[in-house]
TrEMBL record:
Residues 322-546 form the ABC transporter domain. This is ABC transporter ATP-binding protein. Keywords: ATP-binding, Membrane, Nucleotide-binding, Transmembrane, Transmembrane helix. Residues 13-293 form the ABC transmembrane type-1 domain.
């Protein structure tokens, strides 16, 4: 956080100066009070009215200082918050798919919205009050020491004792603020699940049940916020309670000094200044804990574990084969892959078959480098998978799932994924994916905007865009997980033909059999009870009837 604040050093200095404008305003008002009391002590109405006139001017100056302070601070604060959002977003984008998948995507949304808002609310407001509070503390002690050094020394000693008390609250404050962040994440996740499943909820007439569930989640989140706010209030009230005792002592001390010759106006000024010092310190010290807990939230946002293992130094190259040797994988005591051995050849087409739960997706995920919790070895052209840089791997592969994700953007940007693409190459991808007729029918062609997740396209059109995406990327391997499962028979056959006509190595999972087309795969990999058997596709499908 320190590095981020000092990124714009001069703007931060201006922010600090602007935060101190309140000190100038408060000192002017306290000085005026002393002068007015001095005029009353002298019994001069003319002097009293003159100083009241000064008061009007000082109030106007104070208003000007407040507006100037806000204007000078707000721009810097917004820039820092933008940096935090960008840094947090960048941290998430750098994560590998398996790291990203450790928590729900709604958790990341909550962090990028609620947690940043929490930093804005808690950190910057606390920073403002801390700067003005300690600025007043230092300036006030200097002024008081010029008049009454003993009083200044006593106030300094009390402030140090209060700081020691405040540190006792730190750990609990951090835990409570982290709990607020977790509560926001849980609430965001619950609301997202409700909205995503709204159709199912309505079909099941479960609106009341889910409303109650959301109410409970909201109550938990608000209870955590209340617990944090209450604990912060306890800190402040403990310190304020101490402050009242200190002020009683200041009154007693200054009362004695008035009897010894100290002017009444000066005594009033010193009393007000002492009050400001003590209560600013009492208000500011808990803010130190709030700021530290906010920094913890910032670290949670920007210091998410991003694996950059030094061993992953090899670039992905696939010129010949991918070999699995004695690969074992399972969970909860169940083996999905048991000493699996196979060799995948470049340019060949492989179809993975097996019963539900046999481990088809698991095998695909291992080949996609999404999981390393296996024993045995997976090598590409003799290079161990575990030593391959994920970024270089992702550059050379493409994935088509049953549910294709499309951005609310043009068809062009959904195909090239915001990268510059040669127009000839783009047209080849459109032709290879069978999108020619769709593009020709659309008035804006490739520049046609898509609705949320491509709602203005059919399932087949969405799949074809995903295929064009893979072609434009010039991927060497295409992983397909039930790529035609959501399509009708006719569309499924057409898309399957496209898959098999691609020059890339294709590794696909499909529970469907398309007579006369599925035989176009080179091999079928069948999983049964953890064992993998490889068959020539034509031999495997011989005699299979259409369901």
């Amino acid at each position: 956080m320190k590095t981020l604040l000092l990124k714009r050093k001069w703007e931060f200095i201006i922010y600090m100066i602007a935060s101190c404008f309140f000190i100038v305003s408060d000192l002017l008002i306290m000085g005026l009070s002393g002068y007015i009391m001095d005029a009353l002590e002298q019994g001069s109405m003319e002097l009293f009215m003159t100083r009241i006139g000064y008061g009007v001017i000082i109030v106007l100056i104070g208003a000007g200082l407040y507006l100037s302070s806000r204007f000078l601070r707000i721009g810097y604060m917004r820039k820092v918050l933008l940096d935090i959002r960008a840094e947090a977003f960048g941290t998430v984008l750098k994560m590998s798919p398996k790291q990203f998948g450790k928590v729900s995507k709604e958790n990341y949304v909550s962090r990028l919205t609620n947690d940043v808002n929490l930093i804005e609310e808690k950190f910057f407001i606390s920073l403002l009050n801390l700067i003005s509070g300690f600025g007043m503390y230092i300036i006030g002690l200097i002024i008081i020491s010029c008049y009454e050094p003993v009083l200044a020394g006593g106030l300094f000693l009390v402030s140090m004792i209060c700081y020691g008390v405040c540190t006792l609250f730190l750990k609990r404050t951090q835990k409570l603020q982290e709990a607020v962040s977790e509560g926001n994440e849980a609430l965001t996740l619950n609301m997202s699940n409700t909205f995503n499943g709204l159709e199912i909820i309505k079909l099941g007439n479960m609106e009341d049940k889910f409303l109650e569930k959301n109410k409970k989640e909201i109550s938990r989140a608000e209870a955590r916020k209340q617990a944090f706010n209450n604990y912060s209030e306890i800190q402040q009230n403990v310190l304020i309670f101490v402050g009242y005792f200190v002020m009683a002592g200041v009154i007693f001390y200054l009362g004695g000094k008035i009897g010894g010759g100290l002017g009444f106006g000066i005594a009033v000024f010193l009393f007000q200044l002492s009050t400001q010092i003590i209560f600013r310190v009492m208000d500011s010290l808990p803010l130190v804990n709030v700021m530290r807990s906010s920094i913890k939230i910032y670290e949670k946002l920007t210091c998410l574990e991003v694996s950059q293992e030094e061993t992953k130094s090899n670039a992905f190259r696939f010129d010949r084969t991918i070999e699995l040797k004695d690969v074992c994988f399972g969970y909860e005591g169940r083996k999905l892959l048991d000493h699996t051995n196979m060799t995948l050849e470049k340019g060949k087409k492989y179809l993975i078959k097996g019963a539900s739960g046999a481990g088809k997706s698991t095998l695909l995920h291992l080949l996609q480098m999404l999981n390393e919790d296996y024993t045995g070895s997976i090598k590409v052209d003799g290079i161990d998978y575990r030593t391959i840089d994920e970024r270089s791997f992702n550059e050379k592969v493409a994935v088509i799932d049953q549910d294709i994700f499309l951005f609310e953007d043009t068809i062009r940007n959904n195909i090239n994924l915001y990268r510059e693409t040669d127009e000839t190459f783009m047209q080849e991808a459109i032709k290879g994916a069978g999108l020619e007729s769709l593009i020709a029918e659309l008035e804006k062609g490739l520049e046609t905007p898509l609705l949320e997740n491509g709602k203005n396209l059919s399932g087949g059109q969405r799949q074809r865009i995903a295929i064009a995406r893979a072609i434009v990327k010039d991927a060497e391997i295409l992983f397909i997980d039930e790529g035609t499962a959501s399509l009708n028979e006719a569309l499924g056959r057409e898309i399957e033909k496209v898959f098999l006509n691609l020059p890339q190595t294709v590794i696909a999972i499909s529970h469907r059999y398309y007579e006369g087309i599925s035989e176009g795969y080179d091999y079928v990999l069948e999983l049964q009870a953890g064992r993998l058997n490889q068959y020539d596709a034509k031999d495997y499908f011989e005699g299979v009837s259409v369901c």
